[in-house]
Amino acid sequence: MPSRAGDRAFMTLWLADSLTADEQIIAELRGLTGPSRVWDLGAIILLSVPSEVSAWHDLFYGAAPGRPDLAMLALLPAAAGAATFASAVLRKTVYVAVTERQVIVVRMRNRSTPDRVLLAAPIGALRLTTTSRLGRRAVTCTAADGGALLIGGKYRKRLRLTAIDRRPRFGEALSAIRAQGGSVDLPPLPPVPAWDRPA
Asked: Are 173 and 27 a contacting pair, CB within 8 Å?
Protein backbone atom coordinates (compact mmCIF):
# COMPACT_ATOMS: atom_id res chain seq x y z
CA MET A 1 0.00 0.00 0.00
CA PRO A 2 1.65 3.27 -1.08
CA SER A 3 2.03 6.05 1.44
CA ARG A 4 -0.18 9.09 1.26
CA ALA A 5 2.72 11.26 0.06
CA GLY A 6 3.69 8.68 -2.56
CA ASP A 7 0.08 8.36 -3.67
CA ARG A 8 -0.21 12.13 -4.10
CA ALA A 9 3.10 12.33 -5.99
CA PHE A 10 2.02 9.56 -8.37
CA MET A 11 -1.34 11.17 -9.08
CA THR A 12 0.37 14.54 -9.63
CA LEU A 13 2.50 12.94 -12.35
CA TRP A 14 -0.48 11.15 -13.88
CA LEU A 15 -2.48 14.40 -13.96
CA ALA A 16 0.39 16.40 -15.46
CA ASP A 17 -1.66 17.26 -18.56
CA SER A 18 -4.49 18.63 -16.40
CA LEU A 19 -2.29 20.73 -14.09
CA THR A 20 -0.41 23.94 -14.76
CA ALA A 21 3.32 24.12 -14.06
CA ASP A 22 2.93 25.62 -10.58
CA GLU A 23 -0.28 23.75 -9.61
CA GLN A 24 -0.16 21.18 -6.82
CA ILE A 25 -2.59 18.79 -5.20
CA ILE A 26 -3.32 20.19 -1.74
CA ALA A 27 -5.94 17.64 -0.65
CA GLU A 28 -7.37 14.39 -1.91
CA LEU A 29 -10.23 12.03 -1.25
CA ARG A 30 -11.23 8.56 -2.39
CA GLY A 31 -14.83 7.67 -2.99
CA LEU A 32 -17.34 5.57 -4.88
CA THR A 33 -19.74 6.61 -7.63
CA GLY A 34 -22.88 4.74 -8.59
CA PRO A 35 -25.55 3.18 -6.36
CA SER A 36 -24.83 3.44 -2.65
CA ARG A 37 -24.67 0.44 -0.35
CA VAL A 38 -27.92 1.68 1.19
CA TRP A 39 -29.52 0.81 -2.16
CA ASP A 40 -28.14 -2.75 -1.83
CA LEU A 41 -29.76 -3.10 1.58
CA GLY A 42 -33.05 -1.73 0.32
CA ALA A 43 -33.07 -4.10 -2.66
CA ILE A 44 -32.42 -7.10 -0.44
CA ILE A 45 -35.20 -6.12 1.97
CA LEU A 46 -37.77 -5.30 -0.71
CA LEU A 47 -37.13 -8.44 -2.71
CA SER A 48 -37.00 -10.70 0.33
CA VAL A 49 -40.12 -9.47 2.14
CA PRO A 50 -42.67 -11.15 -0.18
CA SER A 51 -41.01 -14.55 0.17
CA GLU A 52 -40.80 -14.19 3.95
CA VAL A 53 -44.48 -13.20 4.20
CA SER A 54 -45.43 -16.14 2.00
CA ALA A 55 -43.41 -18.55 4.12
CA TRP A 56 -44.98 -17.34 7.39
CA HIS A 57 -48.48 -17.49 5.86
CA ASP A 58 -47.95 -21.07 4.76
CA LEU A 59 -46.56 -22.00 8.17
CA PHE A 60 -49.69 -20.86 10.01
CA TYR A 61 -52.47 -21.26 7.41
CA GLY A 62 -51.12 -23.78 4.93
CA ALA A 63 -50.14 -23.26 1.32
CA ALA A 64 -52.76 -22.48 -1.29
CA PRO A 65 -53.03 -25.20 -3.97
CA GLY A 66 -50.96 -24.50 -7.04
CA ARG A 67 -49.20 -21.45 -5.63
CA PRO A 68 -45.46 -21.48 -6.52
CA ASP A 69 -44.24 -20.71 -3.00
CA LEU A 70 -41.03 -22.69 -3.29
CA ALA A 71 -40.21 -20.90 -6.53
CA MET A 72 -40.76 -17.55 -4.83
CA LEU A 73 -38.52 -18.53 -1.96
CA ALA A 74 -35.80 -19.52 -4.41
CA LEU A 75 -36.10 -16.74 -7.00
CA LEU A 76 -36.63 -13.63 -4.88
CA PRO A 77 -33.42 -13.94 -2.82
CA ALA A 78 -31.63 -14.72 -6.09
CA ALA A 79 -33.07 -11.52 -7.57
CA ALA A 80 -31.86 -9.60 -4.51
CA GLY A 81 -28.39 -11.04 -5.03
CA ALA A 82 -28.46 -10.11 -8.71
CA ALA A 83 -29.52 -6.55 -7.87
CA THR A 84 -26.69 -6.25 -5.35
CA PHE A 85 -24.18 -7.61 -7.88
CA ALA A 86 -25.40 -5.19 -10.56
CA SER A 87 -25.02 -2.20 -8.24
CA ALA A 88 -21.51 -3.39 -7.29
CA VAL A 89 -20.58 -3.47 -11.00
CA LEU A 90 -21.96 0.05 -11.51
CA ARG A 91 -20.12 1.34 -8.45
CA LYS A 92 -16.68 2.73 -9.38
CA THR A 93 -13.77 3.92 -7.25
CA VAL A 94 -12.72 7.52 -7.84
CA TYR A 95 -9.86 9.73 -6.69
CA VAL A 96 -10.71 13.37 -6.03
CA ALA A 97 -7.79 15.79 -6.32
CA VAL A 98 -8.13 19.32 -4.96
CA THR A 99 -5.64 21.92 -6.17
CA GLU A 100 -5.45 25.67 -5.64
CA ARG A 101 -7.57 26.17 -8.76
CA GLN A 102 -9.69 23.14 -9.54
CA VAL A 103 -11.30 19.88 -8.48
CA ILE A 104 -10.41 16.83 -10.56
CA VAL A 105 -12.26 13.52 -10.25
CA VAL A 106 -10.41 10.50 -11.65
CA ARG A 107 -12.06 7.12 -12.18
CA MET A 108 -9.81 4.31 -10.98
CA ARG A 109 -9.45 0.80 -12.43
CA ASN A 110 -8.56 -0.31 -8.92
CA ARG A 111 -7.34 1.44 -5.78
CA SER A 112 -3.92 2.32 -7.24
CA THR A 113 -4.42 2.44 -11.03
CA PRO A 114 -6.09 5.53 -12.55
CA ASP A 115 -8.27 5.09 -15.63
CA ARG A 116 -9.50 8.47 -16.86
CA VAL A 117 -10.55 11.93 -15.73
CA LEU A 118 -14.29 12.08 -15.13
CA LEU A 119 -14.53 15.73 -14.12
CA ALA A 120 -12.17 18.69 -14.06
CA ALA A 121 -13.70 22.01 -13.09
CA PRO A 122 -12.56 25.28 -11.52
CA ILE A 123 -13.34 25.37 -7.81
CA GLY A 124 -15.52 28.44 -8.23
CA ALA A 125 -17.66 26.67 -10.83
CA LEU A 126 -18.76 23.94 -8.43
CA ARG A 127 -21.24 23.71 -5.61
CA LEU A 128 -20.73 20.81 -3.21
CA THR A 129 -23.46 19.50 -0.94
CA THR A 130 -22.56 16.96 1.74
CA THR A 131 -24.78 14.40 3.41
CA SER A 132 -24.32 11.64 5.94
CA ARG A 133 -26.34 8.42 6.00
CA LEU A 134 -25.74 5.34 8.13
CA GLY A 135 -22.25 6.57 8.94
CA ARG A 136 -21.34 7.09 5.27
CA ARG A 137 -20.38 10.59 4.13
CA ALA A 138 -21.34 11.61 0.60
CA VAL A 139 -20.85 14.71 -1.52
CA THR A 140 -22.84 15.84 -4.54
CA CYS A 141 -21.13 18.08 -7.11
CA THR A 142 -23.32 20.43 -9.14
CA ALA A 143 -22.63 23.51 -11.22
CA ALA A 144 -22.60 26.72 -9.19
CA ASP A 145 -24.66 28.46 -11.89
CA GLY A 146 -27.29 25.70 -11.95
CA GLY A 147 -26.22 24.42 -15.36
CA ALA A 148 -24.70 21.09 -16.37
CA LEU A 149 -21.24 19.66 -15.76
CA LEU A 150 -19.11 17.80 -18.29
CA ILE A 151 -18.77 14.42 -16.57
CA GLY A 152 -17.18 11.52 -18.40
CA GLY A 153 -17.65 13.23 -21.74
CA LYS A 154 -21.37 13.89 -21.21
CA TYR A 155 -23.21 16.85 -19.75
CA ARG A 156 -24.95 15.89 -16.52
CA LYS A 157 -26.65 17.77 -13.71
CA ARG A 158 -24.67 16.23 -10.87
CA LEU A 159 -22.01 13.80 -9.76
CA ARG A 160 -22.56 12.06 -6.45
CA LEU A 161 -19.88 10.11 -4.66
CA THR A 162 -19.62 8.37 -1.32
CA ALA A 163 -16.40 8.83 0.63
CA ILE A 164 -14.44 5.71 1.57
CA ASP A 165 -11.59 7.57 3.25
CA ARG A 166 -11.47 8.30 6.94
CA ARG A 167 -13.41 11.28 8.23
CA PRO A 168 -10.32 13.56 8.69
CA ARG A 169 -9.38 13.27 5.00
CA PHE A 170 -12.97 14.02 3.99
CA GLY A 171 -12.89 17.14 6.15
CA GLU A 172 -9.49 18.18 4.78
CA ALA A 173 -10.73 18.01 1.20
CA LEU A 174 -13.84 20.09 1.94
CA SER A 175 -11.81 22.61 3.97
CA ALA A 176 -9.32 22.99 1.11
CA ILE A 177 -12.15 23.65 -1.36
CA ARG A 178 -13.68 26.24 0.97
CA ALA A 179 -10.30 27.90 1.54
CA GLN A 180 -9.94 28.38 -2.22
CA GLY A 181 -13.35 30.07 -2.43
CA GLY A 182 -15.43 27.01 -3.25
CA SER A 183 -19.08 26.60 -2.25
CA VAL A 184 -19.58 23.77 0.25
CA ASP A 185 -22.95 23.18 1.89
CA LEU A 186 -22.59 21.20 5.09
CA PRO A 187 -25.55 19.30 6.56
CA PRO A 188 -27.31 21.06 9.45
CA LEU A 189 -26.08 20.13 12.88
CA PRO A 190 -28.44 18.00 14.99
CA PRO A 191 -30.18 19.88 17.81
CA VAL A 192 -28.36 19.99 21.12
CA PRO A 193 -30.12 17.84 23.75
CA ALA A 194 -31.70 19.82 26.60
CA TRP A 195 -29.44 18.17 29.17
CA ASP A 196 -26.35 19.29 27.25
CA ARG A 197 -27.32 22.96 26.82
CA PRO A 198 -25.52 25.62 28.85
CA ALA A 199 -27.46 26.97 31.82
From this structure: yes
